[in-house]
From TrEMBL:
This is FAD-binding PCMH-type domain-containing protein. InterPro entries: BBE, FAD-bd_PCMH, FAD-bd_PCMH-like_sf, FAD-bd_PCMH_sub1, FAD-bd_PCMH_sub2, Oxid_FAD_bind_N. PROSITE patterns: FAD_PCMH. One of its GO terms (molecular function) is oxidoreductase activity. It holds the Pfam family BBE. Residues 69-246 form the FAD-binding PCMH-type domain. Residues 1-23 form the signal peptide. Keywords: FAD, Flavoprotein, Glycoprotein, Signal. PANTHER family: OS08G0158400 PROTEIN (PTHR32448). It comes from the Eukaryota.
Length: 522
């Protein structure tokens, strides 16, 4: 925990350090030569390398950032061990080239592999090869490389034990590093909270190229990396996770209720029961698309328990025995990831291919129910050309039992998280404007009903509409704390100031910097 005395002493030390050290001028040739000297052949890809485009696009999930005009990294380093990360950071610090880590490439705004400013020269340290997973059934822990995907983690756990799991997200191609760095939540959040709540240790390369575990980095930095967003404090290369017990049998269902079958009434009732009335062993989320509300549930138990719960709390939804499917926990992972049953476990090892669509997302946190009349008017948005979808993930349970300051993620007391998502396949300007306009328009429409002062957002659903940091060029001034507060307090609320304090302690020169990285508190 940060104490007043430790903050004062640390900030005094930081002030003395940064007031006497000028920014390092950018020397791109020196940077590349440094990498070539310190790294083995075959892992460095410059913009002149024939394989550069394929290596860059391998982990990109959004076609919006695969365009000739997108500023891309000077160099990509495909690290295969921690020493490669160290050398990359040290060469970058020595020659004024900042380093951005990339694990799964799901960053919604692509900040792990692109810049908004062509003058901002940077390199990628790609962590995809650092994906070893070691599960210890006896201690119920797992050591996981940041480059592993959630699918690979789930597969590794299931191969060791049918009674252990991990409470992380649905998407199997999401990188472990980025997911944990933003907090990370999934279908067991009401039972077990955030994925980051179960991190018990980590190994990070800091701005000086040192390898630090939890004890060496200190509790302040360890607090910051478990939800403060990726790419701000160092390059986390591995995580030690506390796994959770799962029952032998879980139950899932997916039911559709169209607008003309009381969907607005059901959504209104759902807001009243999904957060508090349902047991922690159950989550009931909703996907709203076209003129349909799709109710999806994972229940950590058998069908009879689920049906009894629904009959007591939400009989209006009309869930029947025929809707229930009993399965193992790992089968439920496949069910929600790939929309069906009978899928082979090996699908979880597919890291995905080149991007096939454009997308934009935004997020909100709801602390009060949306009135029924607002749901009625919202249906009209789904009749518009370019309409996307809404995803409603309820909180409550374990989420509300943990203090908002326990990790950087501050939104634990929300009723639910609301995500706006739009995707399209047409590269034309008109199509992009249509879909982007839908997302932004509905987001504006919802403003009276969402969290405020500040309006909340989830850092793992990155949104540059909230604001960006000062550019600073290659060696210019650092990030403005006051300007960063515009987006930072939306993601982190009161925790943003503490994150900036930690940044000043661990990276006072602001080496790990991007358009929405945490600035050092001045």
């Amino acid at each position: 925990m940060v104490t007043a005395q430790s903050v004062v002493l640390a900030l005094l030390a930081v002030f003395l350090a940064i007031s006497t050290v000028a920014p390092t001028p950018t020397n791109t040739t020196g940077f590349v030569n440094c990498l070539v000297f310190h790294l083995p052949p075959g892992i460095i890809y410059t913009q002149g390398s024939s394989s550069y485009p394929s290596v860059l696009e391998y982990s990109i999930k959004n076609l919006r950032f695969v365009t000739p005009g997108t500023p891309t990294p000077l160099v990509i380093i495909k690290a295969t061990n921690t020493s490669h990360v160290q050398a990359s950071v040290r060469c970058g610090a020595r020659h004024g080239v900042r380093v951005r880590p990339r694990s799964g490439g799901h960053d919604y705004e692509g900040l792990s592999y692109r810049s908004l400013d062509a003058a901002r020269r940077f390199a990628i340290v790609d962590l995809a090869a650092l994906r070893a997973i070691r599960v210890d059934v006896r201690s119920e822990t797992a050591l996981v490389g940041s480059g592993a995907t959630l699918g690979e983690l789930y597969y590794g756990i299931a191969n060791k034990s049918a009674r252990l799991g991990f409470p992380a997200g649905i998407g199997p191609t999401v990188g472990v590093g980025g997911h944990l760095s933003g907090g990370g939540f999934g279908l067991m959040l009401r039972k077990h909270g955030l994925a980051a709540d179960h991190v018990v240790d980590a190994v990070m390369v800091d701005a000086e190229g040192r390898i630090l575990d939890r004890a060496a980095m200190g509790e302040d930095a360890f607090w910051a990396i478990r939800g403060g967003g990726g790419g701000s404090f160092g390059v986390v290369v591995s995580w030690k996770l506390q796994l959770v017990r799962v029952p032998a049998t879980v139950t899932v269902f997916t039911v559709h209720r169209p607008r003309n079958r009381s969907a607005s009434d059901l959504l209104t009732k759902w807001q009243q029961i999904a957060h508090g009335a349902l047991p922690r062993d159950m989550i009931l989320r909703v996907v709203v698309q076209n003129q349909d509300a799709q109710f999806e549930s994972l229940y950590l138990g058998r069908c009879r328990g689920l049906l009894a719960t629904m009959a007591k709390t939400f009989p209006e939804l009309g869930v029947t025995r025929q809707d229930c499917i009993e399965m193992s926990w790992i089968e439920s992972v496949l069910y929600f990831a790939f929309y069906g049953t009978g899928k082979p476990l090996e699908l979880l090892l597919d890291r995905g291919s080149k991007p096939d669509r454009y997308f934009k997302a935004k997020s909100d946190f709801m602390h009060d129910p949306i009135p029924k009349n607002v749901w009625e008017s919202t249906w009209e948005w789904f009749l518009k050309d370019g309409a996307g979808l809404l995803i409603l993930d309820p909180y409550g349970g374990r989420m509300g039992a943990v203090a908002p300051s326990a990790t950087p993620f501050p939104h634990r007391r929300a009723l639910y998280n609301l995500q706006y998502y739009g995707s399209w396949f047409d590269n034309g300007t008109e199509a992009s404007e249509k879909h982007m306009g839908w997302i932004r328009g509905l987001h504006r429409e919802m403003e009276p009903y969402v969290s405020r002062n500040p309006r909340g957002a989830y850092v793992n659903y990155k949104d540059l509409d909230l604001g960006v940091n000062d550019s600073g060029g290659d060696s210019g001034g650092g990030t403005s704390y006051e300007k960063a507060r515009g987006w930072g307090e939306s993601y982190f609320k009161e925790n943003f100031e503490r994150l900036a304090m930690v940044k000043a302690m661990v990276d006072p020169s602001d080496f790990f910097r991007n358009e929405q990285s945490i600035p050092p508190l001045p």
